[in-house]
Amino acid sequence: MPIGSPKPQTVATRKYEKKAGWMSKSYKMKKEVVDDFAKACELAGVSQAGQLMKMMQEFTEQITNEHSE
Predict the structure, then answer these.
(1) What is the pLDDT of residue 37?
(2) What's this model's pTM, rounded to 2 decimal places?
(3) How far apart are the first and last CA of the chain?
């Protein structure tokens, strides 16, 4: 649970995220890459988080398939 004296909504949100399997990750990346990715996502009309999840899933499937053969 959140540290300190969180509001009830914060507690409920964290509880839902844990139950639904959501988590937050942080990566350090070059600013130019991040900015270009943000622009590309905006042009494509997709969210950055959604696109990252899609690319991660596709990469995971590709590697899993290559190593299962």
Answers:
(1) 98
(2) 0.75
(3) 42
